[in-house]
Amino acid sequence: MGEKSKGYLLLIGGAEDKNRDCKILEKVVNLSGESKACLTVITVATTRPEQVGGDYVRFFSRLGVKDVVALDIKTRQEAQKDYIAERIEKSTGIFFTGGDQLRITSLLGGSRFYHALHDAYKKGVVLCGTSAGASVMSDTMIVEGDGNQTPAGSLINMAPGMGLLEEVVVDQHFAQRGRIGRLLTAVACNPYVLGVGIDEDTAILINPKAVFTVEGSGTVTVIDGSAVEYTNVSELAPGEPLAMFNAKIHVLSPGTSFDLSTRRPFPEES
């Protein structure tokens, strides 16, 4: 069994509230040190880095962060630069925006940035990601797959992620884009890997003991395939429907928790 988690991760299902209560973004600020935070926004995933990075810098500044910058890393050569690694080393919080998770791994994987990020994580720096920035944190990620479809053969494509969260696959915009079919298919491909689907404006905060608590306004769906008795996933032609027997599904609301090591949910503490 892997260590699951070595530090603090805040994984957001996308479309977090930025204009009203901003509870999830406030949680990012609180975990990063509030007014003393040194917060770095990573815009690698998006094709609109100036706009997206600028928006998040304004949001976090409005919430009281004085030292917040957006890093737009365009090439693998940039990911090796001293100033990039130095900024990661001094950060108390690191935030990955949404976009395309494969852009993150292909540009940053194995780079000096990548190693500085892992070092920061092990030291207790909170790593946050929204949408694609959430999916990329695990050791395996979904990179392609239609929502609102029956679980079926060749429904998804998967690839290695950043390896910060072990034996978990994360999907986002979960209820809003009808992605339960593709998460079921991902779990069927490897029933030992937990599937975690996070709704929009919803997050999971994972601590170093590999226990997460749900934050925000929606729900989190956990699919546990460890006791699956039968699946036909390896025999399916593209589009043929999936069979999977005895998978376990948990639905967690804000305030409830889940232990990734024991695979047990817990109700909200009174």
Radius of gyration, whole Å: 18 Å
Low-pLDDT windows of residues: none
Question: How many domains, as an integer?
Answer: 1
Share of residues in helices: 10-25%
Secondary-structure element pattern, one letter each: EHEHEHEHHEHEEEHEEEEEEEEE
Walk across the major sheet and give the strand order: 3-2-4-5-1-10-11-16-17
Largest sheet: 9 strands, mixed
Q: Averaging pLDDT over every residue, what do you get?
A: 96
Q: Which superfamily, in CATH terms, is the homologous superfamily?
A: Class I glutamine amidotransferase (GATase) domain
Strand content: 25-35%
CATH topology: Rossmann fold
Between the first and last Cα atoms, what is the distance in angstroms? 32 Å
The CATH architecture is 3-Layer(aba) Sandwich
| CATH class descriptor | Alpha Beta
Total of DSSP H or I helical runs spanning 4+ residues: 7
Class inferred from helices and paired strands: alpha/beta
Total beta strand runs? 17
State the shape: globular
Written overview of the protein:
The chain is an alpha/beta fold and 270 residues long. The chain has a single domain (9-265), classed as 3-Layer(aba) Sandwich (Rossmann fold), CATH 3.40.50.880. It is 24% helix and 28% strand. It is built from seven helices and 17 strands. The chain has helices at 23-32, 49-62, 82-90, 101-108, 112-122, 132-135, 180-189; strands at residues 9-12, 38-42, 67-71, 93-96, 126-130, 140-145, 156-160, 168-172, 194-198, 202-206, 211-216, 220-224, 230-231, 244-245, 248-252, 257-259, 264-266. The chain has a nine-stranded mixed β-sheet with strand order 3-2-4-5-1-10-11-16-17, sandwiched between helices. It has a four-stranded mixed β-sheet with strand order 8-9-12-15. The chain has a two-stranded antiparallel ribbon with strand order 6-7. It starts with 8 loop residues before the first strand and ends with a strand. The mean pLDDT is 96.
